[in-house]
Amino acid sequence: MLNKLSGWHDTIVALATPPGIGALGVIRLSGDKAINIIDLLFPSKNISDQLSHTLHVGLLKENEKLLDQVVISVYKNPASYTGEDVVEISCHGSSYVQDQIIQAVIRKGARIANPGEFTQRAFLNGKLDLIQAEAVADLIVSSTAASQKAALHNIRGKFSEILKDMRDQLIQFSSLIELELDFSEEDVEFADRKKFVELIDIISITTKKLLGSFALGNVIKNGVSVAIVGKPNAGKSTLLNTLLNDNRAIVSEIAGTTRDTIEETLNINGILFRMIDTAGIRDHSADVIENLGILKSLEKIEEADIVLYLFDAGNLEISDVKKVKEKLTKQNKNFFLVVNKSDIINKQNVENLLQSVHEILFISAKENTGIEELKANLFLSVTSQTPLTENTVITNARHYAALFEIEKSLSEIRDGLTNNIFTDLLSLEIRRCLHHLGEITGEITNEDRLDYIFSKFCIGK
Ligand SMILES: Nc1nc2c(ncn2[C@@H]2O[C@H](COP(=O)(O)OP(=O)(O)OP(=O)(O)O)[C@@H](O)[C@H]2O)c(=O)[nH]1
Ligand SMILES: [Mg+2]
After folding, report:
1. What is the rounded distance in angstroms from the CA atom of residue 357 to the CA atom of residue 412?
2. CA distance 229 to 306
3. What does residue 149 show for φ and ψ, rounded to 5 degrees?
4. Which residues place a Cβ less than 5 A from the ion ligand 2?
5. 247 CA to middle of ligand 2, Å?
6. Is any ligand 1 atom within 6 A of the Cβ of residue 427?
7. Do you find a cis peptide bond into 115, omega within 30 degrees of 0?
8. Which of 15, 116, 157, 313 has the fewest Cβ atoms within 10 angstroms?
9. pLDDT tens digits, residue range 224-249?
10. pLDDT, tens digit (0-9, with 9 covering 90-100), for 298-357
11. Could you tell me the distance, in angstroms and rounded to a whole number, from the CA of residue 285 to the centre of ligand 2?
């Protein structure tokens, strides 16, 4: 286990609620001196004599100076978030009052906490593993049902349980293999190789499933960018407005209305889509600004996760649709071909189009038809590979990288077992696999990595 970090024994303090004016603010302290410090500032009661998990109303005073009327919550070690003595002061939500209290607490012996230091201490005290600690940060920034669900799943230790299971089973075999090494003179085999191969196969299936869930995990964590592109006047801005149910972008019958890109988020069934309205693309424009807009649209096609290519039903050339389809396929883009203004469509044209180009959607952005189907298609395109279920979804690149190494190592172990490699080499590979498993949960880590992970947290958490 790693050495406890420098500054570990300090008592730390931070504002846990957002800075600025609010009804209430919460100031949090953790460490050996947390309760002593409050005793020096809270004359009406001796907090050290109180039971853990109790609340106390009273005046906070530094010497004779009145600071605020507050509620003190007491959590005595080890039954607290950090595993240390924790005190939370619920005070009035004035920045001035909060600053005064924090300064008084510092004068009595605490120091300001680093970002994530409360959770870092919880981890170092064994209250949480690293997956759970990272999930706390994810939950704080979650903005959709899916990201909330994934974070809570990990806080509850579901992913950790899977890894613990794998680790326990591997350790069992690894100790038998190590035993064989101790008796290497006698050429005995304690570990049943056939059973071991079966176990490796089972673990490998789980690992591959977890690795496969990362595409969805990425979507859950970072959202999906969708560029709405097409010729001028196709109705891109109208579509953005209809999707958002808001008059966000200017719409007009003049071709070339949108000059700059407009980006807005859209929540579809708990997944965040970033919808990007772009300038209409045409070959010849004498307008310098419009040309810059067109260049930007082309860039957005490159960058977007999904391209939504909009055609104007009133001005539809089948050859155009085919050309666009070919180009986007060549670019290896995930795309949708959408014919807008289906309210004015020519029936013959539609039938021809349906016959010659598969997978084409018809909508009317203006009349709000086909929009729900379009949304359902967008949602399915990112969730169909790994449906949103109760299963663990990997949302963290650090976990993905370690799982990737685990999978590599499992396949080495499997090859080794089939080729009857030397027991010491086998043992080395198992240890490598265990090492990467321990890296994810934080059983194996180092100070720099921890500092990096926790530096991404909010102060006060
Ligand atoms: N009939 C009909 N008209 C539509 C529909 N969607 C958009 N329009 C009209 O088409 C014209 C162009 O719409 P915009 O949304 O500005 O088109 P755009 O693709 O953003 O155009 P640029 O920004 O110039 O590239 C406007 O007059 C809209 O009212 C539709 O579904 N049906
Ligand atoms: Mg527009």
Report:
1. 46
2. 11
3. -65, -45
4. 236-237, 257-258
5. 12
6. no
7. no
8. 157
9. 999 999 999 999 999 999 999 999 99
10. 899 999 999 999 999 988 888 888 899 999 999 999 999 999 999 998 767 677 777 777
11. 15
